Amino acid sequence: MSSQWIFLSGRFVKKEEATVSVYDHGFLYGDGVFEGIRVYSGNIFKLEEHLNRLYDSAQSIMLNVPYSMEEMAAIIVGTVQKNELDSAYIRVVVSRGPGNLGLDPSHCSKPQVVVIAEELNMFPKELYDKGLRVGSVASRRNRPDVLSPQVKSLNYLNNILVKMEANQAGVDEALMLNDQGYVTEGSADNIFIVKKGTIYTPPVYLGALEGITRNAIIDLAKEHGYTLEEKPFTRHDVYVADEVFLTGTAVEVIAVVDVDSRKIADGKPGKVTKHLLSKFRELVTTDGVSCYPDVKLEKAY
Ligand code: PMP
Fold first, then answer.
1. Where are the chain's structural domains?
2. Which pLDDT value is given to residue 294?
């Protein structure tokens, strides 16, 4: 297999040589932002939306991304092309860069930009057919007035802790509530429920990241005539739903068939979930930025 190339602050380096300083505040403090993006058959799905969210996250934490959005788009396309990938997951990281051991980011002279593209299957294929088991966890989603869930910061410890809680409970994914007990989202995915033909998802102000897959599913649902409401709901509403599913760049669209040991309806992926998944699969190869033919990149870095 040919080697994997990583974009690391201005050049492509081999995976084995792609290292950053131990003084990088991204490493020391989780000081930075990131994005996860997918390429489907040469199409970078919703690239513009991902770039907007990356730059919004950076703006929120006063981090200057050292490239324009157009340059960053070219770098991302370039990383996919350099690795000769057709379908892949892309991770974009912008850290505050190397500083000293103090918290003060004014000592960090240069943000570091890393782009990794590689194949990724989040869950084994059979789980997409069978559906996931999900468990609600004790750790709450961090409050929007502390570190806003809209900032996709490198500080994902909260999400890692809930994933560990899910692992320990023997389920596939965690369900996070906010401090008032309303359902927010999974560790790295948004949640939808279906009840009597209406689709519900929590409003993001309750404490969910405004997922790009979430928004794509909202658009698809409306386009295909479903009634969809962004409305607060509790665990009880999830337990008695006709269908439950999760959305995210990594997980895509995946059914949930068991929540806190309550079987959801007949315990099989539901009709609406399957329909939206099939429409999503059609969308992903068209809505975005093509890596082919030649998007010229040299200018970007
Ligand atoms: N919530 C969280 C906490 C996430 O990290 C992600 C993954 N980015 C999502 C939801 C899903 O968002 P998206 O569809 O944009 O990947």
1. 5-120, 125-283
2. 58
8 Å CB contact between 149 and 138: no
Architecture of the domain whose range is 125-283 = Alpha-Beta Barrel (3.20)
Complex prediction ipTM: 0.99
Alpha carbons within 13 angstroms on the beta-carbon side of residue 73 total 19
DSSP string, 260-272: TTEEPTTSS--HH
Q: What is the pLDDT of residue 288?
A: 84
Q: Cβ(250)–Cβ(244) under 8 Å?
A: no
Query: Is omega for the bond preceding 293 within 30 degrees of 0, making it cis?
Result: yes
**Atom 2 in ligand 1: residue holding the nearest Cα:** 188
Structure tokens at 132: 């996931």
Q: How is residue 49 written in tokens?
A: 């939306």
Sorted by sequence, the CB contacts under 8 Å of residue 219 that are 6+ apart come out as none
DSSP for 222-252? Answer: HHTT-EEEE----HHHHHT-SEEEEEETTTE
CA of 298 relative to ligand 1 center, distance in Å: 31
Ligand 1 site-directed mutation target among 34, 150, 215, 249, most atoms within 8 Å of CB: 249
What are 82-137's pLDDT values in tens digits? Answer: 999 999 999 999 999 999 999 999 999 899 999 999 998 878 889 999 999 999 99
Q: What's this model's pTM, rounded to 2 decimal places?
A: 0.95
Instruction: Examine domains 5-120 and 125-283 and report if their fold is the same.
Output: no
Between the CA of residue 106 and those of 56, 187, 238, what are the distances in Å? 20, 31, 45
Ligand 1, pocket residues at CB < 6 Å: 36, 159, 185, 188-190, 209, 211-214, 247-249
What is the whole-number distance in angstroms between the Cα of residue 2 and the centre of ligand 1? 31
Its CATH architecture, for the domain 5-120, is 2-Layer Sandwich (3.30)
pLDDT tens, position by position, 230-254: 999 999 999 999 999 999 999 999 9
